[in-house]
């Protein structure tokens, strides 16, 4: 839901409540649901009266306190007295796509332990409980900065979780769990397989659980649609052969993938509105083309980003791609040196190496597009050489599929981008312009 109205209040100002007690009934366009308390306390101030007026998600509706003697302090309280207007329903990032990932964890420091009651229950504000549940955090792992170590909403927002703090049901949640930190895959390794009667259970690592949750959310939230095109690779393969012949022996040869990444970045310059993301109230179009490439599989799956791919040459792209692939090899301790899970502005996945002709990739939020590259295969196609006596010829063809977020890239724009990509690949000399 994005908004609703309060059908009725079950409590009034000054009433005490316990965890699980219903504050009020919230009416949406589809149902009426109860708003339950997450902790014990006293209603100090009701900010919104019951009625048909629409209330945006994130707008404060009441003030609660721990002790009854604190109620009088809020008799004339208004939201403005707290130093700001009601929060918008969906705050948008104010920086580049890198801000989607959580901040790098600071050096470990002694943090106050969460306050607990005599029955072992963690003392936290209702909003802190709600935020922790939405973000998939274990509320008991969040250090509290309130009176007596009480956990407040700001503590949850600023908390940087480790593997031990993620809730066990995180993969089933509708929100994106925080991505794993670099090099953390080994620390979050799964346990040994468990055999049963006619089956074997293979435990998944935290990294896999995080990835599953992010993919599930993206598939639910983003209105995907798909465009597919067949591309003749003959000219690109010939150009690659010519360029590799000019390289010295100490230089690595250029692969087909590097040409395709360069073509994708060049296509973004031709159709810049595809290099964008959905920000609820605005569509953000980026100047730099930062491409996430999908590498590895299983627990070693990672998506390193090649920054400013449009401003790099094919050889430079190849060097960065080689470094990322080398990091998939385990080190002397058997740990995978995974690149960081930074967010770019576009994603490319190569399924052709597995002999797959085509696939429809899931878009990585908040990006608007993802491209899947299929296997190169020999096909018999019509001969476009007018001087040839042969009606047909043999040609190397690749199938490319573009997944688009229809909120950002409509069908016409997606088709223009794919046409530009096809043009660059079939005329690779234009990549040098």
TrEMBL record:
GO terms for molecular function: dihydrolipoyllysine-residue acetyltransferase activity. Signal peptide: none annotated. The keyword Acyltransferase applies. GO terms for biological process: pyruvate decarboxylation to acetyl-CoA. Keywords: Acyltransferase, Lipoyl, Pyruvate, Transferase, Transit peptide. Residues 79-120, 170-191 are annotated as: Disordered. Its cofactor is (R)-lipoate. Residues 86-109 have a biased composition (Pro residues). Its EC number is 2.3.1.-. It is an enzyme of class 2 (transferase). The keyword Acyltransferase applies. This is Dihydrolipoamide acetyltransferase component of pyruvate dehydrogenase complex. It comes from Seminavis robusta.
